[in-house]
Structures are given as structure tokens and as C-alpha cells.
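Sequence only, no structure available. Ideas?
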Amino acid sequence: QWEYAARGGIPDAVYPWGDEFDALRSNLAGSFTSITPVMSYIPNGFGLFDMAGNVMEWTRDRYGEEYYARSPKSDPKGPIRGDVRTARGGAWDSARPTTVYDRTPLLPETALSNLGFRCVEKE
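Reply:
I predicted one. C-alpha cells follow.
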């Protein structure tokens, strides 16, 4: 679901705006020296801001190194068991541009200045 939302309606997009990296569309890969205010960049096709950059986001999914090689193509839920969780979206201090399909494995007790979560309201 996170990856679908990050693509903003562009099937198979590499970034929330398309397939080519654009440093002016996100706070990602060292574009800036710290977090920028939310909504500093234009939203994706679903009206969501900062889906690539600023801070990585915790997701509900557990992380499995080999899971996605054999997972369902549509809305994979992640492994059923495991202590490691998945963060998505990249951060302002990432060494490289982070795609919508990149996953970062983290232990649940991890606290970082480049890690947060997104509040979602179900209509």
C-alpha cells in the first residue's frame, strides 16, 4: 500500500513523479542539510507530500531480505514473522536517491533523526 501511494497513480514509477530523479522535487540524497518543512515540494498524483525524501517512514510490514523475490506482485504484506520492520521513502541524508520500492530494515526500537511516520485518515 505504501508503494502504491508513493507512486501517485503512475504504474511502475521509480519516483513519485516518474522515472527520472529530480533533486528539485524532494529533500533526498543530500539535497539539503536537514529536514525541510512538510509540503515544501509539490505533491504526487494522489496529493501526498514527501513520499520520496525528508524522513524515512515506518511501515507496518516486517522485513525479509528474500521475501519480495517470491512474494505476491500485488500488495505484498511482508513476512509473517520476524523482529525487523521496514521503513520506506528515503531521507534527507540518504547517500543516493531512494526509489519508491526501496526498503530499509530496522529494529522496532530504532530512533533516528531521519525517521518518522505518516498519519493516515481513512475516509
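Helices lie at 2-7, 67-70.
Hope that gets you unstuck.
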